[in-house]
Design brief:
Elements: E1 2-6, E2 27-28, E3 31-32, H1 33-43, E4 48-53, H2 57-64, E5 73-78, H3 79-83, H4 88-100, E6 107-112, E7 115-116, H5 124-127, E8 136-141, E9 153-155, E10 158-160, E11 169-177, H6 178-184, H7 197-205, E12 209-213, E13 219-220, H8 224-231
Parallel strand pairs: 1-4, 1-6, 4-5, 8-12
Antiparallel strand pairs: 2-3, 6-11, 7-13, 8-11, 9-10
Length: 235
């Protein structure tokens, strides 16, 4: 398994901390936030990671380099250099995918850099949740206070639109097939800003988006106050 970490965002809600430091490098419990993911991916057997960047991207490259100290090979999708800014989640995925050098419809991990999930297992047994016929499989979590209406419904191992009463929040972690990009995003030109949600909705409409609920440690590190609370040990 290989992985893409989405790390290009400006982190507006984290200002002023992100005025001079990219959000994935903000320290949390003694190490930069993104390093929690890199170490967990390496423990799970991942060896190749692509990280997309935009805001203050030179700092990320300087801090993480080629990934050797994590037991990884890191390749960089430099949206700031190549396009003048972040391409959003779908645009970033479309640009980064070729750098993963996947074999056919090989699955890969999709990880949002700005979530904290220190005990998530990025191993083959976890990735096996992706079923034949699914384009992607998402891990959902109980809705946090700042996102009470959630993102998606979940029934019978399939992700759906849901209702206000039965939606959960996407953790920012999933296993995707290359076909998700090649099929659903074929018409999206590389270098175009676009969000991922419409493509997830298309996969839902096709009955090809799997999912499950995960109740491990998880937090959306979205504000300085939330970061301070997590640093103090809150979950």
């Amino acid at each position: 398994m290989k992985a893409i970490i989405l790390a290009a965002g400006r982190g507006e809600r984290m200002r002023p901390l992100t005025d001079t430091c990219p959000k994935p490098l903000l320290p949390l419990r003694g190490k930069p936030l993104i390093e929690w993911h890199l170490e967990a991916l390496a423990r799970g057997g991942v060896r190749e990671v692509v990280i997309n960047t935009a805001w203050l991207e030179e700092q990320l490259v300087a801090a993480l380099g080629d990934g050797a100290r994590f037991g990884l090979t890191i390749r960089w999708s430099l949206e700031g250099r190549d396009h003048g800014g972040a391409l959003e989640t779908a645009g970033g995925l479309k640009k980064a995918l070729p750098l993963l050098r996947l074999d056919g419809d090989e699955p890969f991990w999709y990880v949002a850099a700005d979530v904290f999930a220190p005990d998530f297992r990025f191993d083959a047994a976890t990735a096996a949740a992706l079923q034949p016929g699914e384009l992607a499989h998402l891990w959902l979590v109980p809705n946090p206070p700042q996102h009470p209406r959630g993102d998606f419904g979940l029934a019978g191992g399939r992700v759906g639109a849901g209702t206000d009463a039965d939606r959960f929040t996407w953790s920012g972690i999933g296993v995707f097939r290359a076909g998700f990009v090649h099929e659903l995003m074929a018409a999206l030109p590389v270098g175009t800003r676009a969000r991922l949600r419409p493509y997830l909705d298309t996969a839902i409409a096709q009955g090809r988006l799997g999912g499950q609920l995960w109740r491990g440690t998880w937090a959306d590190v979205g504000t300085p106050e939330r970061l301070r609370a997590l640093d103090a040990g809150a979950t």
